[in-house]
Design a protein that fits this description.
The complex is a heterodimer. Chain A is built from 9 helices and 12 strands. Chain A is α+β, with helices and mostly antiparallel strands. Chain B is mainly α. Chain B has one domain: Cupredoxins -  blue copper proteins (Immunoglobulin-like, Sandwich), CATH 2.60.40.420. In chain B, 34% of the residues are buried. Classes of the chains: A alpha+beta, B mainly alpha.
């Protein structure tokens, strides 16, 4: 079982330590075959360990005749060469064939997304049929239930590995190369993911969350993302206010101040917020950060308190991450920025 | 012989110790929360991410620094230097700090009233040793 939507302590910890272990708890066809392989390997491990322990017992305590036989040339040929040779070759061929089948052939009706590894977060881009980016997000991927999703995997710096254990095996993200992985969720839910290749510093806090919706819910989610841009209320450039966009509910009177502070504090140098002058590409895209389930790449729940804590002192939470702690801002300023970011849905 | 000379000092020290212990009840005696409540409280704290800003005993990660540490909370003085340190006030504060203490720098947190009581129970149930 995956954690319920309303009650997760942290997605990254669910991915590692959830119970039953997500790696043995498949939620889709691409994870199913990985789990079969995992159980086969666990089973073989148990059998081989059993044989070795039994042989040890015989070698130490067994009757003279058995011990002689165990130490003979025939035992070495059979137990030392023939048996492992056949078993390991068989497992290797089967394992490689099975893992290759995870990406080939690519399903016809698949949705496509691009996930890019950065130190230490995941960039997410939703692609249309032509491969053009229709929406950017970070550290979170929403998919419809029952539909295969091809994930194009890139890296912008070092080698990372994309792994949502409930949905598929892991696949490396390699600089200068595109790898493809197919995932599919067969039941709605929230599935934790991690970077599974050590990538320096706070690698252990580089998490991800995949959310599977029923197709109708997913369509509603997508439609909501496309229209909820809160530009009209706080856009202070005359003549550039898109008329079609509804204002998002205002929380307190600090909205304009929050936007201004975000721009003045240099946040925009690294972060992009659609519909504003914030156009930085070095850090996670914040166009939809208010509706995200987590902050800090799958590690914190997203609420006003954690947003303030993250902006004000991200280095205490995720030491070594590339966002400096903005502890030069006052509590009021941090809250104003947090409120403005909450409205970016 | 020497021991005789020091007796008055010993007596004075013992008296001072007695006087000091009388100043305040042991913290544990003030409020003993239900273990079930404290268990739910810890779960609520983890789910809400309180530790993003506060160092909280029992939570290894994160150990936020931007807010005050909650080590030894049941032995602290006023809540946020403003409210009498009672479980009721603490529950009110962790759920809606700006309402409990106007001008508070801690924002309202997504906790139900019951969860906020559990969180208060957890913070009071912390072992001082």
């Amino acid at each position: 079982m995956v954690s319920t939507m309303s009650n997760p302590a942290s997605d990254i910890f669910d991915a590692w330590w959830g119970w039953p272990p997500p790696v043995l708890d498949p939620a889709g066809p691409y994870a199913d075959s990985v789990v079969v392989l995992a159980w086969a390997l666990i089973g073989m491990g148990v059998v081989v360990t059993g044989i070795v322990v039994a042989a040890l017992y015989v070698a130490i305590k067994g009757p003279e005749r058995w011990r002689a036989r165990l130490g003979g040339e025939k035992a070495v040929w059979i137990g030392g060469i023939a048996f492992p040779g056949v078993v390991l070759t068989g497992l290797l061929v089967w394992g490689l064939t099975l893992t290759a089948s995870l990406t080939e052939p690519v399903p016809e009706d698949a949705m496509r997304v691009r996930v890019t590894g950065y130190m230490w977060w995941f960039g997410v881009e939703y692609l249309d049929e032509d491969g053009d980016v229709v929406m950017r997000d970070a550290n979170e991927l929403h998919v419809p239930v029952g539909r295969p999703v091809v994930v194009e995997l890139f890296s912008e710096d070092v080698i990372h590995s994309f792994w949502v254990p409930n949905l598929s095996g892991k696949e490396d993200m390699i600089p200068g190369r595109t790898n493809e992985l197919v995932i599919q969720a067969d039941s709605p839910g929230r599935y934790g993911g991690v970077c599974a290749e050590y990538c320096g510093g706070p690698h252990a806090l580089m998490g991800f969350v995949a959310v599977a919706h029923e197709p109708a819910d997913w369509n509603a989610w997508l439609a909501g993302r496309r229209t909820a841009r809160p530009v009209a209320a706080d856009q202070d450039v005359p003549g550039e206010v898109p008329a079609i966009l509804p204002a998002v509910e205002q929380t307190g009177g600090t909205n304009l101040a929050g936007r201004q502070l975000f721009m003045d504090s240099g946040c925009a140098a690294c972060h992009r917020v659609e519909g504003t002058e914030a156009n930085g590409l070095v850090g996670p895209d914040l166009s939809h950060v208010g509706s995200r389930l987590t902050l800090g790449a799958g590690i914190l729940p997203n609420n006003r308190g954690t947003m303030i804590g993250w902006i004000g002192n991200s280095q205490a939470i995720k030491p070594g991450n590339r966002m400096p702690s903005y502890d030069m801002l006052s509590a009021e300023e941090l809250e104003a920025i947090a409120i403005w970011l909450e409205q970016q849905r | 012989m020497n021991t005789l000379q020091y007796r008055p000092r010993l007596a004075a020290a013992a008296l001072l110790c007695l006087a000091l212990t009388a100043c305040k009840e042991p913290p544990g005696a003030r409020y003993v929360p239900d273990p079930e409540d404290t268990k739910r409280g810890l779960a609520a704290i983890e789910r809400t991410g309180c530790a993003a800003c506060h160092e909280i005993p029992g939570i290894d990660w994160p150990r936020g620094q931007i807010g005050p540490s909650l080590e030894g909370f049941n032995n602290a003085g006023l809540i946020a230097a403003a409210l009498p340190n009672t479980p009721e006030n603490l529950a009110l504060f962790v759920r809606n700090a700006p309402a409990a203490k106007p001008g508070s720098t801690m924002p309202a947190m997504p906790l139900t009233e019951e969860e906020s009581r559990d969180v208060a129970a957890y913070l009071y149930g912390l072992d001082d040793e």
